[in-house]
Amino acid sequence: MIARMERKNARRRQAFTLMEMLVVVAIIVALAGIGGFFFIGQLGQSQKDIAITQMKALTQACEMYELKHNVRPQGLRVLLDQDPNTGAGPYLKTKDALIDPWGQEYGYSADGSESRAAGMIQVDIYTVAKDGTKIGNWGVTRKN
Fold first, then answer.
1. Which residue has the higher pLDDT, 89 or 128?
2. 28, CA 20 to 30 Å: which among 14, 64, 116, 139?
3. Residue 29: is it exposed, middle or buried by C-beta count within 10 angstroms (0-12/13-18/19+)?
4. pLDDT tens-digit series, residues 51-95
5. C-alpha span between 114 and 125 (Å, rounded)
6. CA 9/CA 2 separation, integer angstroms
7. 1 burial class (0-12, 13-18, 19+ CB within 10 angstroms)?
8. Read out DSSP for 19-45?
């Protein structure tokens, strides 16, 4: 009689209980939360790296403009147009090149005071990250 009861209970235990399923889901959610925390940190740093790379390309476009026209561009939007007199340009393919990874337009200063302070002779192109860090083509990042 006891052997029959044990066999019945063994056959009936073929699925997980609700409590076991909830424990597994809780563990998965906790691991995803920890992984997401580290992923978000890396995402912020990669956006800064993308901005630095884009600013280098914009700096090169400004230098090409200056070589062709013997004057620094008055703004970054000038790099999108072809000069009707010389036929030079455009130096950028799309308007998207003027937008940083956070969706705002890059700042520009033709005087190059920040770059000059860093020992470079170039225009200043900069942006501000979501965490308040000012990033520029002069290679220095700092909190505002």
1. 128
2. 14
3. exposed
4. 999 999 999 999 999 999 999 999 999 999 998 888 888 999 999
5. 9
6. 11
7. exposed
8. HHHHHHHHHHHHHHHHHHHHHHHHHHH
What pLDDT does 60 receive? 94
| SS3 label, residue 141 | strand
| 3-class state of residue 50 by DSSP | helix
Q: What structural domains does the chain harbor? A: 19-143 (3.30.700.10)
Say if residues 135 and 127 touch (Cβ distance below 8 Å): yes
Q: If you average pLDDT over residues 104-120, what whole number do you get?
A: 90
**Three-class DSSP labels, 114-138:** HHHHCCCCCCEEEEECCCCEEEECC
Cβ atoms of 129 and 48 within 8 Å: the answer is: yes
Residue type, 93: K
Q: What are phi and psi of 7, to 5 degrees?
A: -65, -40
